[in-house]
Amino acid sequence: MLNIGSNINEVRMDGSLKALQRDLAAFAEFGLTAAEISIHGLDAVKNGGIDRRRTSEINTILADFPFRYSTHAPNPLNLMDRSYPELHRDVLHASLEFSSGIGARCMVYHPGRYLVEEEFGIRGPLSFTYHEKQELRDHEAKVLQEAADCFPEVIIAMENARPYRLIPRIAMPRYPKS
After folding, report:
1. Which of 72, 88, 110, 121 gets the highest tally of CB atoms within 10 A of its CB?
2. DSSP 8-class letter at 169
C-alpha cells in the first residue's frame, strides 16, 4: 500500500503537543496516511537522553491517528562533531529509541557535516585535510553502524542537508553565458 504523508515542522510545533495534535488532525482531514515526526520539535530528547514521560505523552496522541510514522532526528545532530562526539552519539541512540518507541520504521538523519551548524558560514572555507575528512567520515560510519545494530527495527535514512564539494570552486568548469 502506498502511503503519502508530510513532515510536521519542528518550528511549527516548538514543543507544543497541541500543535502536534492539530497538525495530525489536519493530515487526517487531507487524507494523508503517514506523518514524519520531528524529534527536536517535541522535546523528546534532552541532554542526550530520551524523555520517557514526554515520549509517553506523544505516544498517547499518536495512537489517536491511523498514520504510519517516521521520524526526523534533531537537526543539530552531527556525528562528525569533534567537540562533543559522545553527546551526539547519545542523541542518535536516544532518537532511535524514541523512533522505535513510537513504532516509526524509519528515521531521517543529515550526514556528512564536517562543521557544526553554528560554525558553517562563519568559519570560512573548510580547512580539513583529506585525511581528517576521511577520519570524520569513518567515525560517522562506525557510529551509524553501531546504532543500526542496536536498533535494527528502525531504518536510518540519509538526507542531504548541504553537501560539501570535494573540489574548490575556482576549479569548477566555467561555461560561457548564453
Report:
1. 72
2. G
User: Tens digit of pLDDT for each residue in 103-138?
Assistant: 999 999 999 887 766 666 666 656 778 899 899 999
Length of the chain: 178
Give the model confidence (pLDDT) of 26-83 as tens digits. Answer: 999 999 999 999 999 999 999 999 999 999 999 999 999 999 999 999 988 999 998 8
The residues with which 37 forms a beta bridge, in sequence order, are: 8, 71
CA distances from 62 to 84, 91, 140, 166, 175 (A): 32, 22, 31, 42, 52
Question: What's the pTM value of the predicted model, to 2 decimals?
Answer: 0.86
How many C-beta atoms surround the C-beta of residue 42 within 10 A?
25
Residues in CB range of 110: below 8 A, 6 or more apart: 73, 75, 77, 78, 158, 159, 160, 161
Q: How far apart are the first and last CA of the chain?
A: 47
